[in-house]
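Key result, reporting period 2: structure in, sequence out.
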């Protein structure tokens, strides 16, 4: 992939600093955001790939930063409520205007995701380090290009149905777990002019983001949601007179 993009990987960074510093230092020495960014560099070597965390000024999501961002990747888990509402509204505006958004793993509960989708985005979960198989169910989709099926994840947190999301535009991946549960693990949505991809594999307790096939999916997702050089204004609503079609040209 050679397209030049401005890619921002956002991670709340709480597990790295507070919750599991020793485990995270061993598994993700540069943080989850660093691992995701490093995985993307091989696919987008000429792109600008940066990271930001909750602790950064304006959470690293200032107006200037978002205006220059083609794709925002979002990883959150235990600090969704700490994301300021005005920042969420800012991100929403940019997504509606055409910025691509990729929401990862427990980011399903992120304020920006629930705001854009309009549902609880809740799901079943169990964390016993089970094997996950990620099955491709729409191989024609660009996000599935070059991805083996199934992707085998040796240990992962279980996410299961019901996943309370609206009907997705595309259902690309379905995961199955040792306990018998299944989950819609790769889905897309369109909101305004923006494209959204949700992909669930990738927990803070397991080195999932180091797996090449997971990196491939995320990179494909970046390429699909990106719309560089276009718009960046939310769709406007015309208030033309009701009988405009009767008026002479």
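The corresponding designed sequence is given below.
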């Amino acid at each position: 992939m050679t397209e030049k993009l401005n890619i921002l990987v956002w991670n709340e960074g709480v597990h790295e600093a507070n919750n599991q510093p020793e485990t995270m230092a061993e598994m993700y020495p540069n943080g989850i955001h660093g691992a995701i960014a490093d995985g993307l560099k091989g696919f987008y070597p000429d792109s600008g790939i940066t990271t930001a965390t909750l602790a950064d000024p304006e959470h690293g999501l200032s107006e200037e930063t978002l205006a220059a961002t083609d794709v925002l990747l979002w990883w959150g888990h235990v600090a969704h409520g700490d994301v300021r509402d005005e920042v969420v509204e800012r991100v929403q505006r940019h997504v509606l205007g055409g910025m691509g958004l990729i929401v990862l793993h427990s980011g399903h509960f992120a304020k920006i995701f629930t705001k854009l989708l309009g549902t609880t985005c809740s799901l079943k979960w169990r964390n016993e380090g089970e094997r996950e198989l990620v099955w491709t169910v729409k191989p024609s989709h660009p996000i599935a290009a070059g991805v083996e099926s199934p992707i085998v994840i040796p240990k992962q947190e279980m996410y299961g149905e019901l996943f309370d999301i609206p009907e997705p535009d595309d259902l690309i991946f379905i995961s199955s777990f040792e306990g018998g549960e299944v989950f819609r693990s790769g889905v897309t949505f369109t909101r305004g002019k923006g494209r959204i991809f949700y992909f669930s594999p990738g927990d803070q307790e397991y080195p999932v983001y180091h797996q090449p096939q997971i990196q491939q999916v995320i990179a494909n997702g970046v390429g699909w949601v990106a719309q560089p050089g276009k718009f960046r204004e939310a769709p406007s609503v015309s208030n033309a007179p009701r009988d405009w079609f009767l008026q002479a040209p």
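The CA atoms of residues 240 and 246 lie 12 Å apart. The chain has seven helices and nine strands. This case is discussed further under Risks and Mitigation.
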